[in-house]
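thread: overnight batch results

M.L. [08:02]
morning all. the overnight job finished for the chain we discussed friday. pasting input first so we're all looking at the same thing
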Amino acid sequence: MSTTSTYPPTALTWKQADDNVHVATRDGEFAGFIEADGTKYVVHDSHGSDLGTFSTLVEARRGLDGSPRRTTRSIRQTLGRHLSRARA
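M.L. [08:03]
and the structure it wrote out:
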């Protein structure tokens, strides 16, 4: 039986650049930033695009990371899942 593995991307590294700005890097490259206005946290990606508004800094950091966490499954589990969807 074979298994399929996916590896999560390298974790973000965070630094507070100012009282209301947190900057993220991944592997030494700029990944985005969070602006806080006292009531909400606005997340921007590495191109400055707005990714959304969050109520806590923890949620905002997750919003930038946003990469789905995939688990390791056997080929049998993967095929079984797809077949059950096809039957539905």
